[in-house]
Write a structure and sequence with these properties.
Radius of gyration of chain A: 25 Å
Strand content of chain A: 25-35%
Largest sheet of chain A: 5 strands, mixed
Number of strands of chain B: 1
Strand order of the largest sheet of chain A: 2-3-4-5-6
Radius of gyration of chain B: 18 Å
Structural class of chain B: mainly alpha
Distance between the termini of chain A: 34 Å
Largest sheet of chain B: none
Shape of chain B: elongated
Largest interface: A-B, 49 and 65 residues
Shape of chain A: globular
Order of helices and strands of chain B: HHHHHHHHE
Number of helices of chain B: 8
Strand content of chain B: under 5%
Oligomer: heterodimer
Chain lengths: 372, 176
């Protein structure tokens, strides 16, 4: 008699032998790639056609080539032609650059989800997408955005994950920014995304800051490149589409993000066994909500999977502050806050306590099980 | 893509297409679907070729693209997945050993299996990937690979066409 796994292996190999490979596997790949690029470009330019068609011609910009700065000083543009809105090389968060890229990335509920998750940790702030694309091979939607309201303008990069929105990049928007640069983790190697104004002519990259090589742009003003381990001397340059082209930004490339999660992962700090005696779950929901009641939280202990997210809902009559891992969050009275990152990105496997002054400095517990 | 990159890409495609087409066939169950899946995989890899720095890891990258493309295609169709139990095209079976009908029975059982479980079995038992490599390709945890594989094998054991087959030793709870 034969073990199942041996028969299975044999059956798969025998069946696969039936297949004859195509004599020309490359045929159609180049054409298919061009068609795919063209489809994406048509989709993105159609979405932004009204604004791009009305873009004003800018005077050549003066440049402050300061390698220690990430932004360049750009003088005010000439008044636009009558009836045409101005397009500045600088990003105005109140009137951001029109959306470019794949409009499908914002569909299927992605944009409302991104906005909801963003506001959960940035109350009063509204996210506006600037550029969206599908990142391969993970096949995840990624969006570069600017956000206004709240404590001040910010910008970032958000992607989808099994646990919902994952903010890969999140930082304040510096005044007079003319290029957004973000080093992002990649499936094979770290990558740099550069987003500049639609009036951009060329984006270039200089390894070790010696010679600038132009980068291909899926849409005007956007470019990608792989990042090496040491980018200390690399540089990025952005030129507009004037004749002759002028440099609107030149500065150092950001460091490649560290491998693994960017934030410290907190070790377990909870009791060896749950105080409540049992932990509810795990469930298949993407988000696990713990309710802060006046007397006891519900559940008192939650069993979470690594890719699940955590939400805290307050049934209290006053605002409170909770600490989970290395994160301290304010929870307004009667509101729900959601941590958009998967719990495994900031909590190590094991028992954790969500500390809250409402529960005598203790609080609900979390059991993070990496094997579930 | 510059000329040198095109040449490298072309060489890679020529070298790996036969093996990857077979994997695509086992994932999709049909020759035409396998050709489409492989074409989609190559197009996506072509578009990302300049960004792939570690040429030694291209195989893992391409497998992952293929699995994702297979998933996307299945979701777009939004139909209950079914494969022909017997491939209607292609050359007659070359396998004329006494096990050929057992192989056909297993292939039919695989056809009835959920996509995710079939993918795990193809990667583990045809591609011979480790659990960690399979987890990377499927973008899931190692624990998920273990449980998915275990459930897939349990499904095969319980399949009516295999349960009473005397040629198979199927001890209760046997796991690989």
């Amino acid at each position: 008699m034969t073990d199942l796994d041996e028969v299975l292996r044999s059956a798969l190999h025998a069946r696969a032998l039936h297949i004859d490979p195509s004599p020309d596997p490359l045929r159609g790949v180049d054409r298919g790639a061009r068609r795919r690029r063209r489809t994406r470009l048509i989709a993105s330019t159609t979405a932004g056609a009204c604004t791009l068609a009305g873009a004003a011609l800018l005077a050549p910009a003066l440049v402050a080539l300061n390698h220690s700065q990430r932004t360049a000083v750009v003088p005010a543009a000439r008044p636009p032609a009558a009836g045409r809105p101005p397009t500045s090389a600088q990003l105005d968060p109140g009137h951001p650059w029109p959306y470019r890229g794949d409009p499908a990335v914002l569909s299927h509920g992605n944009l409302p989800t991104f906005r909801r998750d963003w506001e959960a940790t940035h109350p009063g702030s509204t996210l506006t997408p600037l550029f969206g694309y599908l990142y391969e091979p993970s096949h995840r939607d990624e969006v570069v955005f600017v956000a206004t309201g709240g404590p001040g303008p910010r910008w970032g990069v958000v992607t989808t994950s099994e646990a919902g929105s994952l903010f890969l990049h999140d930082q304040p928007l510096t005044a007079a920014t003319s290029a957004l640069l973000a080093a992002l983790p990649g499936d094979e190697v770290s990558r740099l995304i550069i987003v500049a104004a639609p009036s951009t002519g060329q984006i270039s990259y200089a390894p070790v800051g010696v010679t600038f090589h132009p980068l291909s742009s899926p849409v005007p003003g956007v470019a990608f490149t792989a990042l090496g381990r040491d980018t200390a001397h690399d540089a990025v340059r952005v030129r507009n589409n004037a004749t002759p082209p002028a440099t609107v930004f030149q500065g150092p490339a950001p460091d490649a993000p560290p491998r693994g999660t960017p934030h410290a992962i907190a070790p377990p700090d909870g009791p060896a066994t749950p105080t409540a005696g049992i932990c509810a779950g795990p469930t298949t929901a993407t988000t696990v909500t713990i309710v802060l009641n006046t007397d006891t939280p519900n559940p008192r202990c939650a069993h979470l999977r690594p890719m699940q997210r955590l939400a805290i809902r307050s049934q209290l009559s006053h605002a409170t502050t909770i600490t989970v891992g290395h994160r301290t969050l304010s929870v307004p009275a009667g509101r729900t806050i959601q941590i958009p990152d998967a719990v495994s990105s900031y909590l190590a496997p094991g028992h954790h306590t969500i500390h809250s002054p409402s529960y005598n400095r203790s609080g609900p517990e979390i059991l993070l099980d990496p094997n579930r | 893509m510059d000329l040198e990159a095109r040449v490298l890409f072309g060489s890679y495609v020529a070298a790996r297409s036969p093996a990857l087409l077979r994997t695509a066939y086992l994932l999709t169950g049909g020759h035409a679907e396998a050709e489409d899946l492989l074409q989609t995989t190559w197009i996506r890899t072509y578009l990302a070729w300049d960004r792939i720095r570690d040429r030694g890891a291209v195989d893992g990258y391409v497998r992952r693209v293929m699995v994702n493309a297979s998933t996307s295609s299945w979701r777009r169709r939004r139909i209950q997945e079914s494969m022909c139990a017997i491939v209607p095209e292609g050359p007659p079976s070359r396998d004329r050993t006494a096990d050929s009908d057992l192989h056909d029975v297993l292939w039919s059982a695989l056809a009835r299996m959920p996509r995710r479980q079939r993918t795990a079995l193809v990667l583990r038992f045809y591609e011979d990937l480790t659990e960690a490599e399979t987890a990377h390709v499927m973008a899931v945890s190692i624990g998920t690979v273990k449980s998915t594989t275990s459930r897939a094998l349990a499904l095969l054991r319980q399949d009516p066409s295999l349960r009473d087959d005397p040629r198979l030793s199927l001890p209760d709870g046997a796991l690989t």
